[in-house]
Amino acid sequence: MRIADYVAQTVEQTGAECYFMLSGGMMMHLMDAFGRLPRMRYYCNHHEQACAMGADGYARRSEKLGVCLATSGPGSTNLVTGLAGAYQDSVPILFITGQCKREDTARASGIEGLRQNGFLEVDIVPIVESVTKYAAFVESPERMRFHLEKALYLAREGRPGPVLLDIPLDVQGAAYPEDSEAFVPPAPSAKRADEEELAALLNRIGRAERPLILAGHGVRCASQTPAFLKFVETLGIPVLTSLMAKDLMPFDHPLWVGHPGPRAHRAANFAVQTADLIVTMGCSLHVQTVGYEGDMFAPRAEKIQIDLERPLLQREKIGVHFKHAWDIHDYLPRLASMCASYAGAVPESWRNLCRQWKIEYNVMKDGHLFGEPGDRVNLYEFIDVMSDVLSGGETILTDAGQPHPILGQAFRVKGTQRYLNPGSFAEMGWALPASFGVAAAHPETNVIAVIGDGSLQTNIQELQTLAHHQFNVKLFVINNDGYGSIRRTQETFFKGFYVGSTPGSGVTLPETEKIAAAYGLRFARVENRGVAKQRIQEILAIKGPVVCEVMGQIDQRILPVVASRLLPDGKMRSNSLEEMNPPIAASFEEIRKQAGA
Known about the structure:
The chain is built from 26 helices and 22 strands. It is of the alpha/beta class. It has 3 domains: 3-172, Thiamin diphosphate (ThDP)-binding fold, Pyr/PP domains (Rossmann fold); 195-360, 3-Layer(aba) Sandwich (Rossmann fold); 368-551, Rossmann fold (3-Layer(aba) Sandwich), CATH 3.40.50. Helix 1 packs parallel to helix 8 (144-156).
């Protein structure tokens, strides 16, 4: 058997059901071997970036390994944006790139500083080493097993992430040596929490008057959602999530308060700034969660951070009091089994107050201008209507621009819905190819992708992939006449001097209806707010793909938001999390008094 056959069969044995690829000459053996697999489907994209993002969406939604194949040179470098996003968002993906024959690589030349040796050659490994958990050039057939086993292990061990193997053409086609070196996984390095430490944590929660759990995407990555729900529901403790963990609990769960941050939920920010204890689990404490001024995050709370990744524990921005390098696979199920004796320890008055804030300061009450029925659509109202209309089993995706924060604030997760977004990069164009990965994992359910008209352009070629496979994807394209988020920034900080954000400053976009027609895709339009509900219902009833243009407000505002200001020295300074615009009648001191703080 060829090396390529060994690689393909080993990957198939991981349980992955599909892979994403764009054909290329330097991956010919890999294409042939993977194409012959009986149980793995493949999807051909029209740009390697989209292949990476498709594998990302599949891995997140299926909770299996994502797989992506690309050729050498520009094929491999085109992966980098999608690969880096997967790295920062903890998505396990195996990237396999083809490479020139070993003798044609700069590596084999022995000449220091040689830029290129073979045709379509680039040494991709050093390019991606900073954004992968493991990247290796497979130097010989005898080393293939070691590199592949190590890559598959590291992709899912600890905090998941992408790995990349660069396989020369002559190695791909070589015979697989049966006596190849195996990879031996190292002994676990994470400290196991002992019973006394876990009991001490529960005691701290039990003694607190205003405790919170701040949970992140790491809970889902570790497949610990059931244990997490058992833990928080037994304690009756209010929960905040990061935006990436928005679907960890449904919106109407009595313990879910919201997600904190500069463009988040006012109730969640009130809870953070009032709490006397915050325990973080599987959360990187990103600025989009804790705000840009870390010293002002939860100033009255004792903060406990639990994270397996030691560099995250070393990064200090918010004044954490206790840090534990524990593995969530170990400590969370044990906490869930130990916490029964602490049931009811969290004051009911604190739960009720968090729930009251969530209702009273609902994002739909935050000064949004909706206009008349015939007016263009306010995206908050559109997403609120969509939340009502959806049945509860869909997956919702978004990426950059206004949809990213607005769906985060306004979409109400229910039932078994999943909510996916590129948390760290918020890269333009992610949601379209990522939705294919979701559809590949769950072909019968509706996949809802909400993107800006600018974002559509960055992966517009993937509309052909959508048309070819007839994925059950409903693509809602927000037409706001350019780059709405950039426009708003230029209005706020640069007195409305537009550069690269409007038709008059260099950005024009084609008509979405004509684009859909060119790709042979069914098209619909939400012309105004009066038809939004009816149009969404009509689109959801259609089997297969639909492109729907939503005529959004040109001056759409993101509210509530923590305001920032430009200082004379050019630096930015943001308000504290509780100081969101628009201002509310009550002062924060009055709000704190409600909690007895």
